[in-house]
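note to self — DONT lose this again. spent like an hour looking for the file last time. sequence + predicted structure for the chain T wanted, 370 res
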Amino acid sequence: MEFNLSENTTMVADTARRYLKDHYGFVTYNEQLNQASHCDPARWQLMMELGWLGLPFPESIGGYGGELIDVAMIVRELGAALCLDPYVDLVVAPGKMLEYIGTERATVVLQSIIKNDEKVACALYDCHAGYSVHKPTASIRDGKLSGQKSFVPDGGCANRVIATARIGDELALLLVPLESCEITRYRALDGSRYADLVFHDIEIDDGMILSRGAETSRVISQVIAWLQALDCARMYGAANALYQRTLEYAKTRKQFGAAIGSFQVIQHYLVDMFTDLQQLESMLFMVSVKAELGNAQERDRACSAAKAYYADKAVKIAQQAIQIHGGIGVTEELDIGHYFRLMTHCSLTHGHRDYHLDRLASLSEVNGLG
């Protein structure tokens, strides 16, 4: 079966590629690595003008009505460029959360994100809780929030955070000002900015409670599915860029009087990389369609299959690229090792390979496929 992108989706991808070629390069990436904030005002303004901030959301609330595949094409190009701008973390993740909540209060906050008036992050994970997001340890008692959140991708510049917490036995989503939290910021493996948050008896009023109850779990699961698909998109962009660089290197690097690409073992490596890349592209198209499905089990099976496959094959491409480049492939001055870090990081976010293989097996058993 041949899958062709629509004209609009192709245009989104081409525009993203041109934008990054003109405004982001390896020099920019290296500068951004050491910056406390990854929200460059000029680039963020350009992203708004390109329509990226509104693309994932319905036209009825000020967005552009794009689908997941459209957003995936942007994220694919961000991965290819090693771009650290937290588009997914501060636009897509909180925005889809607010869209799915759907209340008037949530819509107002979402519109402020689309207009570039504020930056909102998502705090879904707890330290030592693995990838569980539905049983947070943070809780509200007597109107005060206490607890902690770990691995919060805030780009070093968010001003509010959507956090999971418990209100009695109910799961809830809260909108909390970051200035009211104790914050420890750090750089992740791929260079992006993360934070650990501690809540010390923060006063919570009714306006800060975005959602609570059984529906909250469904909202979170839908957003996680989007993020898992976009992990794959970012990894595909990086893997494709790595393959192109490695192919060019094999053509020009000479050893024993000949280009190393003429050696049979190198040719075998390159063929393996190429075939894996084709399969990764097909898997990306599949998960970009199925991660939006209303059928939760089919959606989650697709996301786990894709994440498990990417954690194996995309990381393998990065390893082979380093193998062909040799020692220079792990130097700071060359981008090869940086792509490897990106893919290793993405293979671990929102569920590592073993987590997704286990989930895929359990979902298959539930549906009589095992």
